[in-house]
Each structure stands twice: as C-alpha cells, then as structure tokens.
Specification:
Blueprint: E1 2-8, H1 14-30, E2 34-44, E3 47-56, E4 59-67, H2 70-103, H3 116-134
Helix pairs in contact: 1-2
Amino acid sequence: MEVIISGRHLDIDDALREYIQEKLARLEDEYPKLTTARVVLEFERSWRVVEAHIHGKHLTLDATAKSRDFAASVDSVIDKLERQLRKHLERIQEHRLSGREQNIVNPPEEPVEDDDFEDDFELEELEEEVVETAE
C-alpha cells in the first residue's frame, strides 16, 4: 500500500511518520486490497487535527479526528477507519451469505406413505358396485 503522509504548514518528524505507518499496516493486514493511504496533519488553533483518506478496490474510507496530541488523533483516526473497514467487510460477507441461501436447492421431500390410498381405492370399487346395482 502506498502511504502519503503530509503536514499543512508543519514538518513531520520521523518518529511520528513511523508511528502512522505502523498503525496503517494493521489496516492493510485486515484488507490487503487497499491501494493508497493519505494522511494529513495540521494545527488548528490549539488542536492537532489528523485527516486520513484510504482507497482500495471498490472502497474509499475517510476519517478526521482532533485532540491536543498528534498521537491521540492518529489513534482515533485509525480506530474510525478500522470500524468503517470492518463494517464494509461484514456487508460483503452478509451479501455473499444471503446469495448462497437463495441458491440452495431444497432436497426433494420423501414420499409420504398414504395408508388411506388403499381405502380410497376400495371406496371407489364399492361406489361402482352401488351404481351398477342401482341401474
């Protein structure tokens, strides 16, 4: 996965870069079809704001978090992205399962032995005899 980490009007130290890459690696382990991740860090008054945009095969995830510390903001963003990714994967799984349930062909039912069949046959014979004698 291609990871782009940038800062708006600030320089990012290597320790923070490595921390973000380690956190994003967890997402890639869960869903290997992720292609790019863009993380933008910025100061907003006294807040540390982190935005993350992740793209993958038929998937786009966006999350934003702010706190007093960049590490806490990164943790919050990664948690949000994990929840979104899990929800997406559950939807896929449910969709696949519902399709399988519809395609399952019910096995044919075993023929039920009808003891009344012989009785019905005997009744028909008796009715024919009654009709013949009545004529």
